[in-house]
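for the writeup, i need someone to sanity check this before i put it in the appendix. the sequnce is what the collaborator sent (i think, or maybe the updated version? ugh). structure was predicted straight from it, no edits. if anything looks off just tell me and ill rerun, i have time this weekend
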Amino acid sequence: MESVNRAFLLGTVKRVHIEHGPNGHHRAIISLAVEGIKAEQTLRVVAFNGFLGDIEGGSGLGALIYVEGALRRVWAAWPPGRRLQEYVAVEVRPPLGKLVILEPGDGGGDG
């Protein structure tokens, strides 16, 4: 696993757009608001498994996002009620790093 910078941010998922590409590939663009940062940060998900598609219907909107370091990792918890278990790789601009996405009200015990 790559090393990380010990920088932390907390954000909220604002919008998700999923593009269905050729060969069964999918791409998601996640817009989120990060506290203390005026502009929304946009994450382009380039690979994933599991339940990312479920948030297109809105179940992931408003989820809390915990950002650590300067890497490209996301652990997603969709649909609601599931534990943090789904891994996706993201391209982050600007590079923010490891993201833990929590359902609203989740204390974040796993991680």
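The mean pLDDT is 47. DSSP finds no helices and seven strands in the chain.
thx in advance!!
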